[in-house]
């Protein structure tokens, strides 16, 4: 079955996806930077976390989600998932007709503007891919980069355990090797991780800057929309929230970052 034609109307929606609530950090930036854009947000909560998945699984999930977004006539997709961006972005960009924006390149460019000794916390899959290190060094080979895989962070965030003392202990363990390297910048290499900002800030020296790539990701998306003539001049429609898992669980988890309880649909990606 062939894909439907790409929507060319500026009023068409932007599709944003992540494995769960992490992409809400990108969504909030969209609200601030591109308030006229209508958005469909998809959280693949039935299959979270992605960070311990195989590359083949991550590619399958990405293809399924982007195919669904194409059916929704999305004019652009923002892959608000660093694991997917690190492993399959190039593949899906070549396979689908709409622009697909990832997180790694914008985050890497922003990181080199901030620091010289850069630490990256990420999911195990993103860290193993070396995507951030390669991207940062491609921008500026003179900086130093260290990465740490953090397998427990996403499940803890999805379970609303940010302020659990156990989460602080886990964070100390992940940060220790980076602090030993005297990093001056810490990059959130997963869109979930900005939710941990209060905990991480309390554990880091004040000289260490925290970088959320979400701002640069949305800035990149906005540039592409302008270049392609797809920026929406009209007021946006309400955001449509969809998940593959339990809508009620997502709504409750999302509440603290959206300041409301969103209406959430359950979507079946495959027949």
Characterise the protein shown here:
- The protein is an alpha/beta fold and 271 residues long.
- It has 2 domains: 14-102 and 215-266, Rossmann fold (3-Layer(aba) Sandwich), CATH 3.40.50.1860; 104-213, 3-Layer(aba) Sandwich (Rossmann fold), CATH 3.40.50.
- It contains 11 helices and 10 strands.
- It has helices at 24-33, 55-71, 82-95, 104-114, 124-129, 131-139, 153-158, 165-179, 197-203, 214-228, 247-258; strands at 14-18, 39-43, 76-79, 100-101, 117-122, 144-149, 185-189, 209-211, 240-243, 264-266.
- Strand 9 (240-243), helix 11 and strand 10 (264-266) form a beta-alpha-beta unit.
- The chain is globular, with a radius of gyration of 18 Å.
- The model has no long low-confidence stretch (mean pLDDT 95).
**What does the overall shape look like?**
globular
Order of helices and strands: EHEHEHEHEHHEHHEHEHEHE
> How much helicity do the residues have?
40-55%
Mean pLDDT: 95
Rg measurement, Å: 18 Å
CATH class of the largest domain: Alpha Beta
**How would you write the strand order of the largest sheet?**
4-3-1-2-9-10
Strand content: 15-25%
Uncertain ranges: none
Tell how many strands the DSSP assignment holds.
Answer: 10
Count up the helices: 11
Q: Any idea of the CATH topology of the largest domain? A: Rossmann fold
N- to C-terminal separation?
Answer: 13 Å
Domain count: the total is: 2
Judged by helices, strands and strand pairing, the structural class is alpha/beta
The profile of the biggest β sheet is: 6 strands, parallel
CATH architectural grouping of the largest domain: 3-Layer(aba) Sandwich
Function: Provides the (R)-glutamate required for cell wall biosynthesis.
InterPro entries: Asp/Glu/hydantoin_racemase, Asp/Glu_race, Asp/Glu_racemase_AS_1, Asp/Glu_racemase_AS_2, Glu_race
GO molecular function: glutamate racemase activity
GO biological process, one term: cell wall organization
């Amino acid at each position: 079955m062939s894909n439907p034609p790409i929507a060319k109307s500026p009023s068409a929606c932007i599709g944003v996806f992540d494995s769960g609530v992490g992409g809400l950090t990108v969504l909030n930036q969209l609200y601030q930077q591109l308030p006229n854009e209508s958005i469909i947000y998809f959280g693949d909560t039935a299959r979270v976390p992605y960070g311990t998945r195989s590359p083949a699984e991550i590619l399958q999930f990405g293809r399924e989600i982007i195919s669904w977004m194409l059916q929704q006539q999305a004019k652009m997709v923002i892959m608000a998932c660093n694991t997917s961006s690190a492993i399959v972005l190039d593949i899906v960009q070549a396979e689908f007709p709409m622009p697909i924006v990832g997180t790694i390149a914008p985050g890497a460019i922003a990181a080199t503007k901030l620091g010289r000794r850069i630490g990256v916390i990420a999911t195990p899959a993103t860290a193993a891919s070396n995507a951030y290190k390669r991207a940062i060094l491609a921008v500026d080979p003179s900086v130093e980069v260290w990465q740490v895989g953090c397998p427990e962070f996403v499940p803890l965030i999805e379970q609303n355990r940010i302020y659990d003392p156990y989460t602080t202990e886990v964070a100390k363990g992940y940060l220790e090797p980076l602090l030993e390297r005297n990093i001056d910048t810490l990059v959130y290499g997963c869109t979930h991780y900005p939710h941990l900002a209060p905990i991480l800030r309390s554990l880091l020296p004040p000289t260490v800057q925290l970088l959320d790539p979400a701002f640069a990701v949305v800035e990149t998306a906005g540039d592409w929309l302008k270049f392609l003539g797809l920026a929406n001049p009209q007021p946006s429609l309400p955001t449509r929230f969809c998940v593959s898992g339990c809508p009620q669980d997502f709504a409750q988890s999302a509440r603290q970052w959206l300041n409301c309880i969103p209406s959430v649909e359950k979507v079946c990606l495959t027949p």
